Amino acid sequence: MVKIMIFLHGTTIMHKNALDRSREGRVKQVLDGEESLYDFATYIPVGNAVRKLQTWKKQGAEIVYLSSHKREEEVEKDKAVLRDHGTDNIPSDTTICMHSEMFGTWRSMIMYPKKRVMLLLFGHPCENEYQEIKFS
User: pTM for the full model?
Assistant: First the structure.
């Protein structure tokens, strides 16, 4: 099985006010310190990111998300985004937390390399809790 590691912020999800903006427009928002940049709980999928993830999963890849967040409250917001079902809150194959007979989100992992800790979840992120695993 192939593992694909994806940086969560800016690659898979983006700040909500970046919707319908060009890449250049999004970069300008970042440089200008646009306020929704720091509202991580409201981040939305980037363009066709969900479709790309679906394709890779159909091909048998395991997706691992990487986050730059270190503080617990920020990581909690990342968890919420990974559990997201869109504006209608209906699990589907077009949301970050995918539910489908052919493919879906079956695991989620958050790693803290410096702390030597990993949070691991088996099943759909919206239906299960993360378990902490410590490495010595």
Answer: 0.64
